[in-house]
Amino acid sequence: MPVEALMDDDLDELAWLNLDDVSQTLDVSEIEHLYQTLELEEARIEVEISDCVEHRNSVDTRLAQLSALHKSVEATSLLVKPMQRVIDATAGNAGAISGHVRELDQERVKLEHALNTVKETVELKSRLSELLTAMETRDVDRASLLVHEYKATSSDTLDSPFIAFASDSSPPRDIIAAATKELVERVTFMFNTAVESSNTREIGRCFRLFPQLGETQRGLDLYSEFLCAAITDKTRLAQVHTTYALRITRLFEAIASVVDNNFALVEQYYGRGYVLRIIQRLQMEGARRACLVLDFFEEERQVKRRLAQIQQVDVAKPRPLVKAKAEKDDGISDGDFKDIASILAEVVLIGRQVAAFNRFLESRAQPEALLLLGDPETQARVFLSTESLNKLVPLSSALPNTMHVDAQTGLVAHTQLTSRVEWLTNVYVELETFCVQRSMAKAMALDDTNELSGWDSAVISDVEARAQGPMVQTSSCVGDVFFVAKTALEHAVAMQQPRAVEAIAQCVLEAFGEFVRVMGQQAVEKWADVASVQRRILVALNNLDLANVYLQKMVDEVRIRLNTEWARLPETDKTKGQNAIDSLSAISSKLLQAQQHSIDQLSTSLLKPCMRSILQHSYRDIKYVLSDEEFNDVQSDNLFQQRFNLRIRKLGHQLRPRLLPSTYTLVVDAMCACLVYDWERAIRQSKFNMLGGMMFEKDVRFVQLCLEQEAGGVLRAKFAKLVQMARVVAEPAETSVAGVDKDVRALLANRVDVQPN
């Protein structure tokens, strides 16, 4: 085995061989294995010895170099020993010096601290001297500034041993406390004196001194009282107005002006967020005064009596239409209704102003409140406490103890105005509901359908009868009804109360249900002459069509108005309002149903007789069994098409001025249905040959084209059955049977050139 194999494979095995174990081995195979291993190890050692012998010269050279290097190292060691002794001594001296330096540094720090303390003590003594001088000379501004600077003095200075040199009598803390107390009393007295004398410059000066004395709450509260008194002076002129909405408007405008004019002043001298205390105080003052105005409004306008009067009237009960004037069968005269309408208008204006005032305060307070969310300590100093809020509420106001400052908006929640707004909303809903029902009933009762001009002559299919002068297509009730509904919805949106919008939307839905019923009743009402019947049906159709257009426009405009005015309201309130407005779209389906019912009535009374008469007149002396010569004559002079075109144009000239464009399209569609029904019946009873069938197919195409021109649209679906029948009777005899639908198979029996099967 080669040496490389031994090094790679048996080196590990040789490492654990022990002579005692080898001597105790008795197995022959193990002895042979050990013997082979020893021989291999011996061969490996011989190889290594041979290598060493071959490189002997280089090994000797390296040993000589090592010996010379050893001598050089010993000589260098002898030279380094003196230097090492010097270094050791120097290191010892450096350690001692370092310790002394550290001690000196500590002493220097103590000395600097002592010097600073002495300096601050000297400055404190100077300030105390200046403070005492300022107090003697009544220099309030200088004294307040010195007190403010004293607050910046560190507690170490006040507790230092040098503090005894700063004052000859009392400790500085006692001197500053006494001076601060006296200054607060002086500034408060000066502020009250300035308020009594209306010295706004002195008021502003005292207001700026309170934060220097650490009396921010006192300064803000006194200034708030001054601003509330100023609001009283500003709103005194509005008391002469008898319109309570104007009084509340003047009140809220005065408060808004005060907030905007003093916002920057408070922020400059007190800091961000402190203006919230003034806003909250002004909010409570505005709520108190607004409640007083509403109390006087309720009493002077006799709101309770009007509500009781309305509750006794069952306006929801349908009233029969009258031809001239609406009967006053509800016990409320026109004068009473006018008073109720004026109260309603004032309630809406008041509700609008209250909502706008709340949104204004929220826009000013909420950004400041968000700054204080992470600072509970400052928040507690700025916000009015529950005890303070309760003191601002009159004892006569029985409010639940739920008033608190909302940390998110910075405003007082559940003020006394909140309950009055709920009362105002209830009053509004009652008044608006009554006015909507009463006004719509009156608008429908005073409908001028019978007085419309241009409807004296009836529609006749065989006479060219045109109206004399302009023809009024719709009656007055449509515009009146939608004016009432839109006005009511805009009032509800202005109140900015979801409950009001939901209630008025439901009221409008019910009122429009009555409107649809009245329009449907016009279509079936019996009258003495034909012209009156046609007028009421056609006007009802126009009214319903126009009402559908007005409805969509009204819903869109009110929705846009709601999204604009309710932009700052919570999303839940906006969603409720939008859902209430969108629910009005359900009226559209009722209008379409009533419109279809009116068209059915029109078809029965006018369209079917007219179309039957036109068809009969057009088919006079007309046949569809034609020879070649007759076919050519009919092609050059088609009497059927000429007669039909003349009669249908006459009918269109009479109907078009009486109907709106969209309504006229629906009527033409109904005319097609009547014509197709009678025409199919007539064709099933007629005889044909192939040439006659071809002419019939041309007649069908011509009639379809005429009516499409009248309708302004495509009527292919209406004529699909007739076109199929025409194609059947126009095909050659040998192919006419193949592929014929079952429902027209009987028509083949009318072909004189087709043998019956």
Would you write up a description of this structure?
- The chain is mainly alpha-helical.
- It is built from 26 helices and two strands.
- It has helices at 3-15, 19-23, 28-54, 56-136, 140-150, 155-159, 172-196, 200-209, 216-235, 244-270, 275-300, 303-311, 334-371, 376-382, 386-391, 416-445, 476-495, 498-524, 530-565, 571-582, 586-618, 628-636, 639-655, 661-684, 690-711, 720-730, and strands at residues 404-405, 412-413.
- A two-stranded antiparallel ribbon has the order 1-2.
- Helix 7 packs antiparallel against helix 8, helix 13 (334-371) packs antiparallel against helix 16 and helix 17 runs antiparallel to helix 18.
- The longest helix is centred in the N-terminal third of the chain and has 81 residues, at 56-136.
- It is flat and about 155 Å long.
- The N and C termini lie far apart (116 Å).
- The model is unreliable at 1-7 and 315-329 (pLDDT under 50).
Q: Which key phrases capture this entry?
A:
flat; 757 residues; disordered N terminus; mainly alpha
Outline of this structure?
The chain is mainly alpha-helical and 757 residues long.
CA distance, first residue to last residue: 116 Å
Overall pLDDT metric: 81
User: How many distinct helices?
Assistant: 26
Widest β-sheet, arrangement of strands: 1-2
**Series of secondary-structure elements, N-terminal to C-terminal:** HHHHHHHHHHHHHHHEEHHHHHHHHHHH
Question: Structural class of the secondary elements?
Answer: mainly alpha
Overall shape: flat
Rounded to the nearest angstrom, the radius of gyration is 54 Å
Main beta-sheet strand count, sense and barrel state: 2 strands, antiparallel
* Number of strand elements: 2
Poorly predicted tracts of residues: 1-7, 315-329
What share of the residues does DSSP label as strand, in percent?
under 5%
Helix residue percentage? over 70%
